[in-house]
Specification:
The protein has about 260 residues and is α/β, with parallel strands linked by helices. The protein has helices at about 5-10, 20-45, 70-85, 110-125, 150-165, 190-210, 235-250, and strands spanning about 55-60, 60-70, 90-95, 135-140, 140-150, 170-175, 175, 220-225, 225-235, 255-260. The chain contains seven helices and ten strands. This is BON domain-containing protein.
Amino acid sequence: MNTKKKLLATMTISALVSVPAMANTWEGEAKDAWLDGKVETALMMNTQINSFRIDTDVNNGVAILSGEIDTKAKRDLALQLASNVDGIKEVRNQITVAPDPKEKSWKGSAKDAWIDGRVETALMFNTEVNNFKIDTEVNNGIVMLTGEVGSEAKKDLAGRIAAKVDGVSSVINKLTVKEGYEGEANEGSTFARKMRDMAVTAGLNIEFAAHSELEATRIDIDTKNGAVELTGEVKSQAAKDLAVEIAKGYDDVTSVKDNLRVVN
């Protein structure tokens, strides 16, 4: 399994270029990056295989799995999990079976980053705590939690969730309790919010490319916490209005700041 940085990196998508043919290429790469993240998450959330390092890559909807695992049954399970992800057309399973998989370079900071991503994901998928901003840091398998939660019970729950993640040796729970604090409703963790912001940016780029009024323009999109900022140049007021309308109507967008300029 890759590190959190790798997971986020695969989700990071460059701005859409103005040539329609290139836009089609970009759309495919954007979808593959999103599918790659979904496959990684599916593998990461399965307790039978998430202690193994399984690398994933998606190209044109075809997922390639590589790495080492200790039994054929778990190798087959990884294949099944990846195949069940919506949008995956085919899975090429290149995982090798080794009774005692070697860690090789899978040590130190790389392993800590991987564990950190798994802890973040575990917290993100728990509806009791994912509306709070909980920061995680891992050093030699020791997890430190910081941030604010609304009760002692939720502080303890976050600690237990982190402790159950394979690879975690201990948890230092420095979460502070702010009685009555309900967190940021429906926002989830910082990790989840960043992924959703990336999805919004990617989706809007694809939407813009699908409209002939916008396909030959360069619109830069920046999304932070659901707030979208549009900058760049368009050829008419109608194109400007269309871009803003599309952005305002897109799922998970909370606001739109229009900095587009009309250039005849």
